[in-house]
Amino acid sequence: MPSKLLTDYPWTTGPVIINAPMAGFAGSALAMAVTQAGGIGTIGTADNITALGTDLQAVADFYSSSPSLSPSAFYQNTGLLPIGIGLLLFLTSLDAVLPVLQSHPPAFLWLFAAPTLSDYAPWTTALRTALPQTRIWIQVGSASAAAEVARTAAPDVLVIQGSDAGGHGFARGASVVSLLPETAVRLAANLSVGKTDITLIAAGGIVEGRGAAAAFALGAAGVVMGTRFLAANETVVHPAYRAAMLATSDGALGTARAPIFDELKGPTIWPPLYDGRAIASLSYLDWTQGVDIEVIRQRYAEAAIREDMGFSDRAPVWAGAGVALVNEVQPAGDIVRSVREGTKKALREALEAV
Ligand SMILES: Cc1cc2nc3c(=O)[nH]c(=O)nc-3n(C[C@H](O)[C@H](O)[C@H](O)COP(=O)(O)O)c2cc1C
After folding, report:
1. Which sequence spans correspond to the domains of the chain?
2. Under 8 Å CB-to-CB from 104, ≥6 apart: which residues?
3. Which CATH superfamily is domain 5-237+328-353 in?
């Protein structure tokens, strides 16, 4: 059955590739480049509502002034920007963000990191009331969280985030290889108590066609990539951050999931469910060796005031387990097209191999 994303977001070309809404990294330039290439572009936001307003205005201006583009037709027909906006709920004030979203409603909102799972339902209700056409996506990292959120908040899409993912995710988790089919089975068993037509997409450790092909074989309707798009020209990344990422040649040993990355500036502000995957830095090494947290913080503070902001050794360089396969900086559109073609090639080759 063709992916529902192809009809809901009609400018897309399958297999559908989506950039992760990475707050501080994924702005309007990345989102538009991904959407232009037939993928689904997103903008990540934390608590900078002014920056979000500027980004949304840039997207609206671009699609108003380029009427012949396929995403522009979607914008003209629906009034929705042909992109999604990621919100980190524990950092976001509904009252502050709503007016900005209402002035330029996006095709969908991607919700993540609510203080507790029960917070998604009131957020979803409020957003659906204020923005009735905008679809709701929610990212979770376990089958039981997916089942609970499906029952209580009934999102249109669940992003199933495996533990290989770069950046923040469930501290306890599993890779998408088991997580995605387990979630599909769990949701099918729950049909009588929840929404029946939730689209599942996969995130975590996918950086090229082979990983994406695996996700589609697992039943995903689309594939999200964060780490791969950190190496896109349009992404906002400090040069030392990008250099550290490109220099990492072993995703298993060169990255780690750990709470220490959120403890460097002081106690973590993230809800207890979450930690993050980043490059296994000297801060991480100190932590594994039992160095006192105040000493680790002091060493980080000294590194953070350098020109490289500490990214070459002590600051968090969020990246997924697929990072070793990311070796060049490219335009985002080229990434979308090459992963799309690589996915089809990998699926053809897999069929030949069985
Ligand atoms: C640098 C970085 C920043 C991220 N920021 C966000 C964010 O603001 N909101 C969010 O929902 N997910 C965020 N994520 C997680 C992504 O949504 C996604 O799950 C992840 O990138 C997928 O794994 P991959 O990096 O291996 O592709 C971030 C990931 C990275 C690498």
Report:
1. 5-237+328-353, 239-304
2. 56, 57, 59, 60, 81
3. Aldolase class I (3.20.20.70)
